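Researcher: Re-running this chain for the archive, since the previous output was lost when a drive failed. Same request as before.
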Amino acid sequence: MKKTFWNRKRRENAAGWLFIGPEVFGMLLLSVFPLGFSLALSFADWNLVGGVSSIRFVGWDNFIGLWEDDRFLKALRNNVLFTAATVPGVIVIALAMAAVIHARLYFQSYFKIAFFVPYICSTVAIAAVWSALFHPSKGPVNQILIQLGVTDPPKWLVDTSYALVAVMIIYVWQLIGYKIIIFIAGLSNIPNELYEAASIDGAGTMGQFWHVTLPLLGPTTFFLTITSIISSFKVFDIIKFLTNGGPNDASTVIVYQIYEEGFQRFNMGYASAMSWVLFLMIVLVTSVTWIVQNRKVHD
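Model: Regenerated structure tokens:
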């Protein structure tokens, strides 16, 4: 019997490649190429307005210049403070509220929806609402503080000492509903028999929480911590709409600096160097958190 080139196996392989071909092409065009191009640009000086012909290789100058740039160092410090404050804050508050909603509250479905709504709302709408709430003289927040006896309340979004704090509060408020839903899902998977056994052994409510709930929520907490760290380093939209990084760069972060350098000053080489420093920071922090928490989860 004569063998044909297009046998059944080759036809199936060709069909498979035809199905995944568009996906592979899209990934190469939209992910791999921009990644490699930005890495090459980080070692170059390129003004976007001058066209591709104006690209000039400068070696490590962009990376060296970052550590002599006061605005970048301030953005780096703000980013570290933002992550250090918001990640533990949102995890602890969400866990406490999820435990209360799961165990002791009526109308659980209502509270789940009520807390989740800010997460799916437009950032522009959230920024508009909070800019009114944090208005220095007429905002409800400062009106309440004045009623409580605070004679000189913070100016919040226009105050160099409180602008980043105000953004942190809004960021935590926006994301907390998503974390609560994930924690409630984790709590629902803990068997009641474990709580009954702990109660027979004499454990109270707090004892059951520390010795049953927290250990069994380890994988859930681990997942939320990793995603929260990555999300906190990428914060941009809420800062863009509320403060534009101000006042006096008090609320600027690295992603906002990348936006300013790349799309306002058109300094694409310098912006690419910032992007790769941010990428390496996220990889480093995520890897350390992954190693430490993975050991705790599986101990």
